[in-house]
Amino acid sequence: MALASNQTRYTAIIARLKLRHLRLIDAIVEAHSISGAAARLHITQPAVSKGLREAEDILGVRLFERGPRGLALTVVGRAVVARSKAIQLEIRQVSDEIDALSSGLSGLVTVGAQLVALPALVPAAVRLLRDRGVMVPVRVIEGTLDALLEQLRAGALDLIVGRLPPVDRDQRLVQEVLGQEPIVVVAGAGHPLARRARVRHRDLAQADWVFPPPGSPARAPVMQLFTQHGLARPPGYVETTSYLTVRALLIEHGMVAALPRRTVMRDVEAGWLRILPLAFSQESLALGLTMAADVPPSPAAQRLVECLREAARAEAAGLAQREP
Predict the structure, then answer these.
(1) pLDDT by residue (tens digit) across 89-135?
(2) What whole-number distance in Å separates Cα of residue 25 and Cα of residue 19?
(3) Residues 302, 305, 307, CA angle at the centre, nearest 5°?
C-alpha cells in the first residue's frame, strides 16, 4: 500500500478516523485475529474486516500482516498502536477531569498543620483521599497556630489541623474536635532519665529542654509543669516547632521535651525515644479542625475533612490498643 503524503494523511485522519477504529485495532492486537476481535467487540467478522480496511485506508499504511500466530502488527502498525493508546489515555483523562469539575472535586486543597497532626494524621487522611479516587493536589503548610490562623482568615488556607485553642465568635471561625491528645515527657533512649523506673519533677529542672515557642497551644501546659512544682525554668533551652529538630536534639544531644503523644509514638515504638515515667497532671488538649465560618469548604476540601475524621478515629483506636 503506497504511503500518502503527510498533508493528505493528516487531513484524512482528522476528517475520518474515529475512536471506534482505534478500539477495533486494539481488539485485533489482543486477539491476533479478525474472528477473535469480533468476539471481543460483539460484532460480526465482516464488520471488523471492513473497519480495519477503513483504518488502513485513512492512515495510508498497512497495520497488520499474517504470521505463524495469526495477525501481527507491522513496524508502522506498532507505532500507530502506541500513539493510539496515548490518544485514548488523553481522552480518558479528559473524561476524568470533566467528572471532577462537574462534582466540584478539583482544585488545590491547602491545609495548615501543627506538629501534632503532621507525623500520622495528615498523611493518613491524604492516603484515604487517594484511596477514594479524589486526585486533587494537597498542599500542607506547617506553622505556629497564630501564623496559620492569619493565613486562614486571609483565605490562603482551607482549614487548619491541630490544637483547638479558645476562639471568640467574632473571630468567625468554626472548630471541630477530632480527639483529645495528652502530652508526654520524652527523651532519647540513651538519656539517663530514660533508664529510671521513676522520674521526679525536680529532675526535669536539671535537664536540657526543648520548649514549644510562644504562641503554641502546648506551651502553657509545659510551662505549668515547672510553675506548679516550684521549679525554675532551665537557663539554657531551645524553642522550635520543627519535629525534625526536636527529634535530633532528643536522640543525639541528650535533651528533653514535652510533646503530643501521637507525635512521638512511632519513634517510641522504634526504640529511638522513651516516654519518661512521670505524671503529667495537665489536662489533655483538644485536637481538631479549624475553618472559616463564612466560607464553605470546597467539595474537595470537604472530602479531605471527612478523611481526617476517619483517620483520627482509626488513629485513636490504634493508640488505645497499644496502651498497656
Answers:
(1) 778 767 766 666 666 666 789 999 988 888 888 999 999 999 988 88
(2) 10
(3) 115
Q: Classify residue 42 as left (phi > 0), alpha (psi -120 to 50) or beta.
A: left
Q: What grid cell was written down for 261?
A: 503523644
Q: How far, in Å, CA of 316 to CA of 322, rounded?
A: 10
| Predicted local distance difference test score (pLDDT) of residue 97 | 61
Residue ranges of the chain with pLDDT lower than 70?
1-5, 93, 96-106, 168-170, 215, 217, 280-283, 319-324
Question: How far apart are the C-alpha atoms of 324 and 321, rounded to whole Å?
Answer: 8
Determine contact, residues 216/237, Cβ cutoff 8 Å. Answer: no
Is there a domain that residue 1 lies in?
A: no
Q: In whole angstroms, how far apart are CA 272 and each of 2, 91, 254?
A: 72, 50, 12
* pLDDT score at 2: 45
Assigned C-alpha cell, 60: 495510508
Q: Give the domain-ending residue among 103, 122, 151.
A: 103
Shared-domain flag, residues 273 and 124: no
Looking at the structure of the chain, the number of domains it has is 3
What is the CATH classification number for the domain harbouring 36? 1.10.10.10
- Across 47-73, b (16+ Cβ under 10 Å) vs e yields ebeebbebbbebbbbebbeeeeeebeb
Q: Quickly list DSSP for 171-187.
A: G-EEEEEEEEE-EEEEE
